[in-house]
Amino acid sequence: MTPAMSTAASTTVTAVSTDTIADTDRDRAHRWRRRGAFVLFAAVIWLLPILFGGSVDTRTWAEFMCYAILAVGIDIAWGYGGMLTLGHGVFFGLGAYAMGMHVTLENVPKGATLPSFMSLYGDRTSLPLLWRPFSSLWFTIVAAVVVPALVGALLGLLVFRRRVRGPFFALLTQATALVFSLILIGNLPLTAGSNGLTGFTTVFGRSKYDGATNRWLFNLAAVVLVVILALAFVFVGSRFGRLLVATRDSEDRVRFLGYNPASVKAIAFALSAAVAGVAGALAAPIVGIVSPNQFAVLPSILFVCWVAVGGRGTLWGAVVGALAVNWARTSVSAARPDDWSYVQGALFVVVIVAVPGGIAGLVGSARSPVAVVPRRRGATTQPATELHAEAAS
């Protein structure tokens, strides 16, 4: 090797090393910015009842936290997995009924063996076998997470193995929500029918009417939201998260690389269902009633609309969309009760027609005006290319 060639090679190595160090520094700075934004978000969460009080009290904000958790679960399935689920009320309801059964048993008067509705609607003299394990809080918590996850995994495997996707999958999940609500209504002696589980005077040993209970429930819901959101960011940034996005963009390409798209989507759908179950379990004592009409077809569609308004595929957008839409609903309904339906419909139409990226899309456009329109081809090939490189290595 001549001195000139050696000098050129040395210059090339130095340039590559400099670029690598620069990329590492940028990545490190980006990670710290994301961590700082997350800490700021966690701090703002506790200030929401103060910043946006008025007609929205602390307990209502705690309810909004539950809806934000639900939106995170839907965004994992729809935003990152491409599974438009219009029946997530099923998993939300499973978690809510699990916790509702526990709180109902907690409120059974001393000397009584059954909740009042069981004596009213039937001739039972002992607690049904299905209800007995829910006297334990720890069993209830596990059931509120595991049961929705199992149902989601089973439904996902049955559907995705047959390559059902798109509008057909959406209609199937919608039908599941309808069947679920009909089952709850039809089993009056076991679930209290359309009346639902209600009459909670104590929640986890605390008086429902104590002002400190509202703040305690809000703190609990906020902590769970922050934890769920942090875990969701870890999940979508993991290798499996990249595989899920690649499956969303091109199932055939992922299948060619040796992965099973049905299993990938089923696992993600089960995780999404588990998150919805957590949200439902929190919502039951906060809302104070667990009724079938909370988990039917229409509420399930509205859940998806929250994510659309915030911006799917971002997690941040899902949380902001759920909080913003529900805060607007409560505020507008308090001022003009008859106008919210029109405002809600107009909001969803504007988002679909004019701002398909939602609130997160608007923020992203303001920060980077050059890249307003996402490049579909690049979004399709990049995750699969990374997976191909990993498989080759």
Explain this structure.
- The protein has helices at 3-45, 48-51, 58-80, 89-106, 116-121, 137-160, 166-186, 188-191, 211-236, 239-249, 251-256, 261-287, 297-310, 316-335, 340-353, 358-367, 376-392; strands at 202-203, 206-207.
- Strands 1-2 form a two-stranded antiparallel sheet.
- It is mostly helical and 393 residues long.
- The two termini are 31 Å apart.
- It contains 17 helices and two strands.
- The protein has one domain.
Features:
17 helices; mainly alpha
| Helical content class | over 70%
Order of helices and strands: HHHHHHHHEEHHHHHHHHH
Q: How would you write the strand order of the largest sheet?
A: 1-2
Distance between the termini: 31 Å
Provide the number of structural domains.
1
Total count of helical runs of at least 4 residues = 17
Mean pLDDT, to the nearest integer, reads: 84
Q: How can the largest sheet be summarized?
A: 2 strands, antiparallel
Estimate the global geometry from the Cα principal axes: globular
**Rounded radius of gyration (Å):** 24 Å
The secondary structure category is mainly alpha
Residue runs with pLDDT of under 50 for 5 or more positions: 370-381
Number of strands: 2
Strand content: under 5%
